[in-house]
Amino acid sequence: MTHNEIEILYVEDNASDVELTLVALRRNRVANRIEIVRDGAEALDFLFCRGTHAEQEFSAPKLILLDLKLPKVDGLEVLRAIREDERTKLIPVVILTSSNEQRDLVESYKSHVNSYIQKPVDFNQFQQVVQQLGLYWLIVNKTPLPETC
Amino acid sequence: MFRFRDYSIPKKLTWMNLVVSGAALGLACASFIAYDLVSIRDTVVRNLSIQAQIVGSNSISAILFNDPQSAEKTLSALHSAPNILGAGIYKSDGQLFAAYRRDAENRNLPLVLQTRSGQTKVRWFGDRRVEVASPVLFQGKTTGTVYIRSDFRQLTDRLKRYVIIVAVVFLTSLLVAVLMSSLIGRAISGPILQLAETARIVSREKTYSVRAPATRNRDELASLIGTFNEMLEQIQERDTEVREVHDNLERRVAERTAQLDTANKELEAFSYSVVHDLRAPLRHINGFSKILEEDYGPTLDATARHYLRSVCDAAKNMGQLVDDLLKMGQVGRQQMVRRPTNLNLVLEAAVRDLLPECAGRQIDWRLTELPSAECDPGLMKLVFTNLLSNAVKYTRRREKTVIEVGHVKLDSESAVFIRDNGAGFDQKYADKLFGVFQRLHRAEEFEGTGVGLATVQRIVQKHGGRIWAEAELGKGATFFFTLAAETYAPASTTKFAAAGKL
Questions:
Q1: Residue of chain B whose Cα is closest to the Cα of A98
Q2: Which residues of A79-105 are buried (b: 16+ CB within 10 A; e: fewer)?
Q3: Using a CB-CB distance cutoff of 8 angstroms, which residues of chain A are in contact with residue B275?
Q4: Contact B266, A89 (CB under 8 A)
Q5: Backbone phi, then psi, for B122, in 5-degree steps?
Q6: B257-292, pLDDT tens digit by residue?
Q7: How confident is the model at residue B485 (pLDDT cuts 50, 70, 90)?
Q8: Mean pLDDT in residue range B239-263
Q9: CA distance A128 to A125
Q10: Chain A contacts of B291, Cβ < 8 Å?
Q11: CA-to-CA dists, residue B487 to B345, B375, B411, B460, B467, angstroms
Q12: What pLDDT shows up at residue B1?
């Protein structure tokens, strides 16, 4: 899978969450081309072709799924970095988190998040959410072409 | 118009001295003048008598030798006395013998005059003139009469001088009296004014460190000032004590607040990590169990599948518990925003939220008009939602459910009540109803976490009200809550949607 074929960049530090999300995605046949990074720093390296991704050529994913509580660089910082860079500022970002705190919601929307989802405890509900998410952001929703960025 | 009692003390003292010394001086001067007037009159009469006698004795020979010219010569000596207007010498038979007239106006001397008793006679004519008639005696016999007419020129001249002198003395004395009194008055009123000024400063600026200046005197005023200063001293001491206590208290409050803030922050951080770190494993347990059940269910036997289901349910319950606890925590921390709220609208919204839960149920909603209240509408909705959802939950076994909402006037307050005809509870456990995690029903009977009513109580208490419940096992429960009395506004005028519409 090459860099420019990535549809979803999924930033999540918890292995179980990654696994459950992948199951849900797979069951709903939403996306095959998904890149998983395990902390905020890696997410930024991947996006801006730095560090271990220095060899890669820049390519914007169609959607970024972002957890808030991340090692090294937290989700909000990643979001702000994405919004500050001309190349990435138009990429849809969906926060996928356990937190329902008003403060997190407010800060996320202030940093121009596109959607904020609290992961439901019940797996059936979670599967539904993932399905809607993939359907909406990858199929229903239209985003500007990368050249116009 | 100024009245005496409105005058300042120095002015009063000055006026007092002025009046007293003026009166004394006036009286003294008046009596002095009166006495002098009397004595001058006596002197005038005496002088006139003497002059008459002198003229008489000098004229004896002229009378005896019938020499009027010589008599007139004697009389003309009277010219040196300016007050004598005219004079005459009469023979023993009363006929005018010789006359002296100062000027033409005084021609009308009496033509006939006799002194019968041989005594000097004095006649006053008002305050303008006086006449003296004195017998001329020769060898014990009356040989004639000397008549002198005089005016009061002397008298009035003296009187004028007296009046001027008296006026000058009076005014000078008064001036001296005023000066003296203002000097003495200052000695008396000065300390009083300073005392008053000190009292004013104390009362206006609340500074107790000022002192009224002490006087060198040892009078009542000095003791008053001394006492006043002592009182100030005591007040200052007490003030300092109070301030110290107050400062101490402030400092302790600040310390405690800081500690509380820290504790609060820690609690917040704690509950924040509870959301993330407790919910995540629950999600994983639930997720993997579900996958296991769905993907490998067919290969498991019934018992294994039952266990798996139990794991799922347990995780789900715990997730609910965590969510409820978090909500309660948020209620506790949340800043309350009070504003005039139509409770009917809040109630309607809460009922509307519950309608999906009530699908397929036969519920008779009896909602009567509620008053308006000064409260946080969001929190108040949470109260209604919790209480109504309880009512819906515990009436589940009823064929026909009745849920009633209204308000009642109690002794001094007004309470909102929510009544259902559900499972109810034993009244002796009513006090346990509002404790966190306290439940009066087993989970198999009615699901729940035991957090809802605790949350409701917290909200009601935040509004300064109280909550209680009355129930009977198997017959339903009624929950009452009040809001602080002042939060109620006059009954709302908005027309409340009829219960039937819901």
A1: B276
A2: bebbeeeeebeebbbbbbbbbbbeebb
A3: 98-101
A4: no
A5: -120, 135
A6: 999 999 988 887 777 776 667 888 888 898 898 888
A7: low
A8: 93
A9: 5
A10: 20, 23, 123
A11: 17, 7, 16, 12, 15
A12: 54
Q: Which residues of A touch B274 (CB under 8 A)?
A: none
Residue B486: its pLDDT value, please?
54
More confident residue, B167 or A100: B167
The packing angle between helices B220-273 and B153-205, to 10°, is 20
pLDDT class of B116 with cuts at 50, 70, 90: low
Which residue of chain B has the CA closest to A97? Answer: B276
Q: What is the DSSP string of B385-452?
A: HHHHHHHHHHTTT-SSEEEEEEEEE-SSSEEEEEEE-S----GGGGGGTTSTT--SS-TTTS---S-H
> Are A99 and B275 within 8 A, CB to CB?
yes
Query: Is A134 in contact with A25 (CB distance < 8 Å)?
Result: yes
Residue A96 confidence class, pLDDT cut points 50, 70, 90: very high
Closest-CA residue to A114 (of A58, A62, A38): A62
A23 and chain B in contact, CB less than 8 A: yes
Does the CB of A36 have a partner CB in chain B at under 8 Å?
Answer: no
* pLDDT for residue B490 is more than 60: no
Residue in B319, B326, B330 closest to A121 by CB: B319
Beta strands B84-91 and B96-101, pairing class: antiparallel
What residues of A are in contact with residue B323 (Cβ under 8 Å)?
Answer: 100
What are the CB-based long-range contacts (under 8 Å, 24+) for B32-40?
B32/B166, B33/B159, B33/B162, B33/B163, B33/B166, B36/B158, B36/B162, B37/B155, B37/B159, B40/B154, B40/B155, B40/B158, B40/B159
Half-sphere exposure of B222 (CA within 13 A, CB side): 7
Residues B154, B44: Cα–Cα separation, whole Å: 8
Which of B279, B287, B320 lies at the smallest CB-CB distance from A20? B287
